[in-house]
């Protein structure tokens, strides 16, 4: 008699409804899943130790990934993410990922969550969802980067800008208070730590890239939400467009102060 393994709903998984089954995670799959699994296998083969390893599709059509022990950095953040050490580790991890993924060459008709789009010369495959909630920590050590569904062709600096948005965080007061800061953090310092440990770009370049990225993401959310596509419909309903615009206005007003 085959024993059915119990499913444990994971607390945070707004987009993919993840559950833990034994030592695996099962998540909603889609047309993009084979591409993401190919990417994750490539990363594993080339020594990127932070990403989960795909193990196929289950009988319910869900993707299967190995479960990674640790705690996700959900808000309020764990102490390490509130400190420079957390930003340093995240930046080093992102640079390592980008350097490795330069060699990954998907075909021109590859399906991503946002649809088919070609990898242009000079681009890499972005992670595309670089919030602390997608990082796993064991104590003060960063051990994993999860939830790769929004991976897509793009520019290195856009991933770094997105990380700055969420990890510094380059956001208005509501954003940094929710992260767990009692007082406004030294954003210029935190941004400099991120940029210095990644390399290649300046704080000014990252800030300008973030303003452009937020505007682009709002356009995508409006377009896909109007088509009735998830998760963008849910993004619109929960107020992401208004929050992004508020943060963009804050950035435009304060960007000169962020350069130290």
Question: What features would you describe in this structure?
Answer:
This protein is of the alpha+beta class. The protein folds into two domains: 7-66; 71-259, Aminoglycoside 3'-phosphotransferase, Chain: A, domain 2 (Alpha-Beta Complex), CATH 3.90.1200. The protein is 43% helix and 15% strand. The protein is built from nine helices and twelve strands. It has a five-stranded antiparallel β-sheet with strand order 1-2-3-5-4, covered by helices on one side. A three-stranded antiparallel β-sheet has the order 6-10-11, covered by helices on one side. Strands 7-8 form a two-stranded antiparallel sheet. A hairpin with a 2-residue loop joins β2 (19-21) and β3 (24-27). α3 runs parallel beside α6. It is globular and about 55 Å long.
Count of the domains: 2
Residues in β-strands, percent:
15-25%
Please give the CATH architecture of the largest domain. Answer: Alpha-Beta Complex
What pattern of helices and strands is seen along the backbone? EEEHEEEHHEEEEEEHHHHHH
Mean pLDDT: 93
Number of helices: 9
CA radius of gyration: 18 Å
Largest sheet: 5 strands, antiparallel
Oligomeric state, counting identical vs distinct chains: single chain
The rough form would be described as globular
Structural class: alpha+beta
- Work out the number of β strands: 12
Question: Poorly predicted ranges (pLDDT <50, ≥5 residues)?
Answer: none
Into which percent range does the helicity of residues fall? 40-55%
Main-sheet strand order equals 1-2-3-5-4
> What is the CATH class designation of the largest domain?
Alpha Beta
Distance between the terminal alpha carbons, to the nearest Å? 66 Å
CATH topology of the largest domain: Aminoglycoside 3'-phosphotransferase, Chain: A, domain 2
């Amino acid at each position: 008699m085959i024993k059915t393994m119990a499913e444990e709903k994971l607390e945070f998984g707004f987009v993919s409804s993840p559950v833990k089954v034994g030592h695996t995670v099962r998540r909603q799959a889609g047309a993009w899943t084979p591409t993401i699994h190919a990417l994750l296998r490539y990363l594993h083969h080339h020594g990127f130790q932070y990403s989960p390893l795909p193990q196929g599709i289950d009988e319910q059509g869900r993707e299967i990934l190995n479960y990674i022990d640790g705690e996700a950095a959900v808000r309020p953040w764990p102490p390490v993410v509130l400190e420079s050490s957390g930003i340093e580790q995240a930046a080093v991890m992102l640079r390592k990922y980008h350097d490795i993924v330069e060699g990954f060459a998907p075909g021109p008709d590859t399906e991503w969550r946002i649809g088919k789009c070609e990898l242009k010369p000079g681009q890499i495959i972005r992670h595309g969802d670089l919030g602390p909630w997608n990082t796993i920590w064991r104590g003060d050590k960063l051990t994993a980067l999860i939830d790769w569904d929004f991976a897509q062709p793009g520019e290195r600096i856009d991933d770094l800008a997105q990380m700055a948005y969420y990890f510094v965080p380059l956001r208005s007061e509501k954003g940094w208070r929710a992260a767990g800061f009692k007082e406004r953090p030294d954003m210029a310092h935190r941004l400099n730590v991120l940029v210095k440990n990644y390399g290649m770009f300046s704080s000014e370049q990252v800030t300008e890239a973030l303003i452009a990225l937020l505007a682009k993401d709002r356009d995508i959310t409006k377009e896909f939400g109007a088509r009735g596509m998830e998760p963008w419909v849910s993004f619109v309903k929960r107020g992401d467009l208004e929050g992004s615009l508020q943060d963009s206005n804050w950035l435009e007003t304060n960007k000169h102060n962020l350069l130290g």
